[in-house]
Write a structure and sequence with these properties.
Layout: E1 2-6, H1 16-30, E2 34-40, E3 54-57, E4 60-65, E5 88-91, H2 96-103, H3 106-109, E6 112-115, H4 129-142, E7 147-150, H5 153-159, E8 168-170, E9 188-195, H6 204-215, E10 222-226, H7 233-242, E11 249-253, H8 259-266, E12 267-272, H9 281-289, E13 292-296, H10 299-304, E14 312-314, H11 319-330, H12 332-336, H13 340-348, H14 353-370
Parallel strand pairs: 1-2, 1-5, 2-4, 5-6, 6-7, 7-8, 9-10, 9-12, 10-11, 12-13, 13-14
Antiparallel strand pairs: 3-4
Helix pairs in contact: 1-14, 2-4, 6-11, 9-13
Length: about 375
């Protein structure tokens, strides 16, 4: 099957969706499908840099089109001329591209599948307007989709508001198997790791406030924030300085494997204070890597952690309460007790991309038959 994956951002942009799409497309290619990527020709973090209109990345053909407007609704009509010759369109965006394939009639002549990726509810931007748009304009466009792949049960519950259940399938994101190969120990005592772009929804400010409480009690505690800057770095540096922890916080910038794998190998504890996640791939990678994990009390993380079976859940709206959970996680005795880390690694081992790709392939065939 010839599949065109459409997403707003792809490499060299780095993030959860970009990594997930790359891994999925490579795994589908290994199963005999042809997967091309169509994306925008500028990245959010370097908007002045125009990327090549076509290149090959990791064995995948990447096509790029210009756009206008804000990143919340980047308009790129030139993408329509690239759709010929494909058996199926797989959207990884529920904004402009979804609307465009509906209003242009593309979804009436080609099967179109959408992966939710949290839809567009990652931030508080236009928080009052988003639910209204979702129930009206997005609902109208989404009805033309053959199938919707929801990356979590929380996404499925949201999608069920606008779509019939027979169109919905829950298939989570997968992980790089190299995380499962990392040794369980020893770990660097006191090293806490957080992985994710420095963006508003990732909750780094409230993580710094919680870490400040912890640092006042534990001299050896250090926090590494791994991820590219999406406009938050200057303010986070100022906050760390005002809290008196700037010498204990490491801003690494964007990090790729194998250095990223090394951070996971070294860290005693992984933490995510995100205010919103559709799934939480970095948290799953941490479980696979053998990190004792502390996750924010949000629906996606409650689901991913098995209700607290595979990770500790913390309320980051209270810095002091979150600090107590982090302190408990840093205790070597806590890491050894209860088999949480070992159980989390077994749990994470189910999420290999080869298995995820097999399940996505079934959705493709089902979508094609539905026409």
């Amino acid at each position: 099957m010839r599949v065109l994956h459409i997403t707003r951002q792809f490499f060299p942009a780095v993030g959860g969706i970009e990594n997930a799409l790359n891994a999925l497309a490579c795994a589908l290619s290994a199963r005999g499908h042809t997967c091309d990527i169509l994306t925008l020709n500028r990245t959010w973090d370097q908007p002045a840099r125009v990327l090549p209109s076509e290149e090959w990345i990791n064995g995948l053909r990447v096509l790029r089109v210009p756009y206008r407007g804000p990143r919340q609704y980047a308009v790129a009509p030139q993408f329509l001329k690239y759709l010929n010759g494909y058996d199926l369109i797989h959207l990884h965006s529920s904004d402009y591209f979804l609307d465009a394939v509906y209003w242009s009639g593309v979804s009436r002549r080609l099967p179109v599948v959408l992966t939710s990726h949290g839809f567009y509810f990652h931030t508080r931007f236009a928080g009052v307007l988003k639910p209204l748009v979702f129930r009206t304009l997005t609902r109208l466009a989404a009805r033309s989709l053959r199938r919707v792949i929801c990356v979590s049960q929380s996404d499925a519950r949201r999608a069920a508001v606008i779509l019939p259940p027979e169109k919905l399938t829950v298939i989570p994101n997968g992980i790089d198997p190299r995380f499962l190969d990392l040794p369980a120990g020893p770990r660097e005592s006191g090293l806490i790791l957080s992985v994710g772009r420095l963006a508003a929804n990732k909750g780094h400010a409230r993580l710094l406030r919680a870490f400040a409480h912890l640092a006042s009690r534990q001299d050896g505690a250090r926090l590494a924030l791994v991820g590219g800057d999406y406009g938050e770095l200057p303010e986070l540096r100022r906050l760390a300085a005002s809290l008196g922890i700037d010498d204990r916080v490491i801003f690494t910038g964007e990090v790729l494997a194998p250095r990223l794998l090394d951070w996971y190998r070294r860290a005693a504890v992984f933490v995510s204070a995100s205010e919103y996640e559709s799934f939480g791939i970095a948290a799953l990678e941490a479980m696979a890597a053998g990190c004792y994990s502390v996750l924010a009390d949000i629906p996606a993380y409650r689901e991913l952690s098995g209700g607290g079976k595979y990770a500790l859940i913390a309320d980051f709206s209270s810095p002091e309460a979150a600090a107590r959970v982090l302190e408990a996680a840093l205790d070597p005795a806590a890491r050894a007790a209860g088999g949480v880390v070992e159980a989390a690694r077994v749990y994470a081992s189910q999420y290999t991309w080869s298995e995820i790709a097999r399940r996505v392939e079934e959705v493709y065939f089902d979508a094609a038959r539905a026409g």
